[in-house]
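Hey, I'm writing a tutorial for new members on how sequence and structure tokens pair up, and I'd like a real worked example in the thread rather than a made-up one. If someone can provide the structure for the chain below, I'll link this post from the tutorial.
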Amino acid sequence: MAGLAGNTSQAALARVTLGRAGATSRRRAVKTLGVAFFGGGVAWQVEQHLPWRNWVADVRTASGERRSLVLDDGTQMVLNGASALDIGFSAQRRMLRLHKGEVLITTAKDGRQPARPFVVMTRGGEAEALGTRFVVRAKEGESALVSVFEGAVQLTPRTAGSTLVLQAGEQASFDAQGTSSASAVHEDSTAWVDGMLIARAMPLSDVLAALQPYSEARLVCEPRVASLRISGTYPLADAPRVLAVLGALPQLRVRPLTRWWGRHEIVVETSD
């Protein structure tokens, strides 16, 4: 399958460097309603399922938007589209709460002594950076995928007793009950930072997951074609064009669908 070559310039990343996110009075008022939920454990799980957490998060991106951020300690982050997280630095640790979406993090050395750990909290547990560059992506339910490119990251499921340390070049999923086995990860998986999707024999289901932050409609595929391998380089800024290319494959058809409750979906299915 041929990629959409020559579109890199169209997909150049528009970086927006922010100071520390300042909550408005409205956002502070709404957050006050949930202060009792920030303790952890079951309380954290309940709070994460409240939809307003995404609306009032410290840092948010819309569908199709990416945003760069430099934290007070010098840590650099890039949020993918349709993402939301809170920033919670204290005297004891540096913490992010990822509510939805995906974030690339390059941690800085903490200037305080003793150095504070850097932790990303998800619905299923915590990912602690051990001096590193890594990605955390919230998946369906409580699951999250962590990919490590420099250093190491320790995964600690919320209820399981065991932990998993990922080294550079490894990735694994985890939820409250445990972790998957580590597998290899390629640097191409961070191409979204530059507005591109680089697929190397990538399952169709994963291609659609990578496109989802750039589509207002929900992207789904039939189970029969979910494992179909796709290769190519595609501009994320033009998700409809990428879907059109997929629909041009002899074995696939792309069909828009509106559910009775008004939700728009784009279904990739077999052409027969």
